[in-house]
């Protein structure tokens, strides 16, 4: 991830990451630059005045898609009253625009040489992520009288960056320059347009450049205002809750991604910088988190995932009939099948979660037409669960990658190589079955039964799904329960041996409903106990386990999205105070990140740190971290659709004060919800 001092602006799949001066000097291993459709279109963008680099006084984060930098010549250590000031204002919205203003504060006229060094390595995002830049095509540069054209071609795969300026400039292979004369108190301005050209297989034009920049900026501003206006209003006596909520709504707007096949409709991209594209699991879980606030994301997500549902057996892409995709990419490595993401299907949870989202969306929206439209896709998803995912033949969902070169080893949400282990720290063989995926399958079948009975006119199929769900629940509670720990195992190996560590996955089991009622209290106690709960959130792996590491990616960090589903699970089983306790921790943590929760943060105990410890490579903003405060709001207020109405049963932490959520959309029209804190967290913690 880019260092924390970088400045980021984004609009869906298009984003710019730069230094605090606005300059970009990317190396093959750093995700700085202008990126679009998984390609870096600018890797060098350095402004100088009379050959001198500039020093940043400050920058303004104007909107998610624009920023402004205030600069002076010279290094900060040598600063004296500057006679020049430079303002760089930039925006991304399809592509990239930068306005440069130079002001002469001197009592005499000045002659200046202004230069922008520009270059591009056209790195595929996977090349940057894997720290390997190995271009197999041709990089070219053409300095034309009125523009600079930087390009890359490899067969019929072509990417170009086209740079032009409103003020006359001299273009060369390494950038462009201006010679200007400024009288006292005079200013000079220019607008630089950077457009991108992308040709896909067969020469298909995927051009994403800005067409009329003033119009584009106004359109982005209008779109953001409309997006905010459609979302419910949250007012709170809690110091930062309303600000965190607004930040989340704006970040969701920023993360909206329009796949090339959708004609402008959007779904949430997973996160900046590595995952600004469509992910099955991430998009579905984000939609579930945000349904009461941005329900329009769900229908788009369901439709595009249904359209790309697997239809054949393909070992390279790990595709099966009925399987829902994991990830879709548009860069060079996917185009030339050096990576399988065109699309890649190596996830075992996105398929049952697809059905879960469809049912949850219908309960909120009343959109029965979409349920009927996607009936066959749901039936194919269940067939995948029963026929293709059960690699061992014992009724569970398993995974073992078929693409052994570039496929994912772990195909659950904890997808790092060492995230699944036995209690002694060793790693199990493949295939593996993780516990939360079985819960998702149970939930999908119970929800699918409702859809079959109420919308597909197939009560026999509904009965079948309910029988299968009941059998799965009975089997699961027998095979996965760790008797000497009082919790469910993280996973099973192919011989049925338990990966018997204590993990946050047990919270997902509560959310799914697969936990036997007489065991729910033990699970709740673990989730708020000191081994899992840090005071800020729930650790991915419990303190005391051999592989526990408070800054291990899936082995001890806190993931806000994960914690939010744990809270939702606690609430489902009636542990409202415990859910409020967890929600309070994450919302407190959000204050230290200015309302923008990162992908993950350190799992250190709260009493050990005055603030949550940043995880060094966490994505930010990230969709399901952005969705976490929204799900926690739903959980604290007890918002649930019930028989066509919105039920509200609030349970807030002490100190939260009054919360009101106004204009909650759903099949009921728009309604308001109000709550006041009343839970004694201190007695719970004790």
Automatic annotation (TrEMBL):
Tell me where in this chain the Mannosylglycerate hydrolase MGH1-like glycoside hydrolase domain is found.
Answer: 335-592
All copies of domain Putative glycogen debranching enzyme N-terminal, residue ranges? 10-192
Give this protein's Gene Ontology molecular function annotations. Answer: transaminase activity
A GO BP term, please? carbohydrate metabolic process
Going by the UniProt record, its keywords in alphabetical order are: Aminotransferase, Transferase
List the InterPro entries: 6-hairpin_glycosidase_sf, 6hp_glycosidase-like_sf, GDE_N_bis, MGH1-like_GH
Protein name per the record: Aminotransferase
What is the source species?
Micromonospora sediminimaris
Species classification: Bacteria, Bacillati, Actinomycetota, Actinomycetes, Micromonosporales
């Amino acid at each position: 991830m880019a260092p924390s001092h970088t400045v980021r602006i984004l609009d869906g799949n298009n984003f710019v990451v730069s230094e605090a001066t606005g300059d970009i000097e990317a190396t093959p291993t750093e995700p700085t630059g202008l990126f679009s459709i998984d390609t870096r279109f600018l890797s060098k963008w350095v402004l100088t005045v009379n050959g001198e680099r500039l020093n940043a006084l400050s920058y303004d984060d104007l909107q998610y898609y624009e920023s402004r930098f205030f600069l002076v010549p010279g290094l900060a250590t040598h600063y004296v009253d500057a006679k020049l000031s430079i303002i760089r204002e930039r925006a991304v919205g399809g592509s990239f625009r930068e306005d440069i203003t130079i002001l002469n504060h001197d009592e005499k006229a000045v002659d200046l040489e202004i230069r922008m060094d520009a270059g591009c390595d056209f790195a595929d995002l996977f090349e940057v992520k894997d720290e390997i830049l190995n271009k197999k095509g041709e990089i070219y540069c053409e300095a034309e009288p009125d523009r600079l054209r930087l390009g890359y071609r490899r067969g019929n795969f072509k990417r170009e960056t086209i740079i032009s300026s409103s003020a006359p400039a001299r273009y060369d292979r390494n950038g462009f320059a201006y010679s200007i004369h400024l009288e006292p108190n005079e200013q000079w301005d220019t607008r630089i347009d950077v457009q991108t050209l992308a040709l896909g297989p067969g020469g298909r034009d995927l051009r994403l450049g800005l067409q009329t920049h003033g119009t584009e900026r106004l359109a982005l501003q209008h779109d953001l205002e409309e997006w905010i206006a459609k979302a419910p209003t949250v007012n709170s006596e809690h110091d930062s809750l309303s600000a965190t909520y607004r930040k989340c709504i704006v970040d969701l707007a920023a993360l909206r991604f329009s796949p090339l096949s959708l004609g402008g409709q959007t779904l949430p991209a997973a996160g900046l910088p590595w995952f600004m594209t469509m992910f099955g699991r991430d998009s579905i879980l984000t939609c579930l988190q945000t349904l009461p606030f941005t329900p329009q994301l769900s229908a788009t997500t369901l439709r595009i995932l249904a359209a790309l549902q697997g239809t054949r057996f393909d070992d390279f892409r790990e595709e099966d009939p009925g399987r829902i995709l994991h990830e879709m990419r548009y860069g060079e490595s996917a185009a030339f099948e050096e990576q399988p993401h065109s699309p890649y299907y190596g996830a075992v949870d996105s398929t049952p979660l697809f059905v879960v989202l469809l049912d949850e969306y219908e309960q909120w929206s009343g959109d029965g037409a979409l349920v009927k439209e996607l009936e066959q896709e749901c039936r194919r998803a269940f067939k995948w669960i029963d026929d293709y995912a059960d690699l061992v033949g014992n009724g569970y969902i398993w995974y073992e990658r078929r693409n052994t070169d570039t496929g994912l080893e772990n195909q659950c949400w904890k997808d790092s190589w060492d995230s699944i282990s036995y209690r002694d720290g060793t790693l199990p063989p493949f295939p593996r079955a993780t516990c939360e995926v079985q819960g998702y399958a149970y939930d999908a079948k119970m929800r699918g039964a409702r859809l079959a009975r109420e919308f597909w006119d197939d009560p026999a199929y509904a009965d079948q799904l309910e029988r299968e769900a009941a059998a799965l629940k009975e089997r699961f509670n027998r095979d996965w329960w760790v008797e000497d720990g009082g919790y469910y195992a993280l996973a099973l190996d192919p011989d049925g041996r338990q990966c018997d560590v204590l993990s946050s996955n047990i919270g997902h089991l509560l959310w799914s409903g697969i936990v036997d009622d007489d065991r729910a209290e033990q699970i709740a106690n673990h989730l708020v106990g000191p081994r899992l709960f840090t005071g800020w959130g729930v650790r991915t792996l419990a303190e005391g386990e051999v592989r526990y590491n408070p800054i291990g990616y899936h082995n001890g960090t806190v993931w806000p999205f994960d914690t939010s589903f744990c809270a939702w699970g606690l609430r489902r089983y009636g542990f409202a105070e415990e859910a409020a306790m967890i929600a309070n921790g994450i919302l407190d943590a959000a204050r230290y990140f200015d309302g923008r929760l990162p992908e993950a943060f350190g799992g250190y105990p709260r009493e050990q740190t005055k603030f949550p410890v940043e995880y060094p490579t966490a994505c930010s903003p990230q969709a399901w971290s952005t969705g976490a405060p929204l799900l926690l709001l739903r959980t604290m207020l007890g918002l649930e659709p019930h028989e066509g109405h919105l039920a509200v049963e609030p349970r807030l932490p002490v100190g939260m004060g009054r919360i009101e959520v106004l204009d909650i959309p759903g099949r009921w029209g728009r309604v308001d919800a109000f709550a006041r804190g009343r839970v004694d967290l201190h007695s719970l913690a004790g």
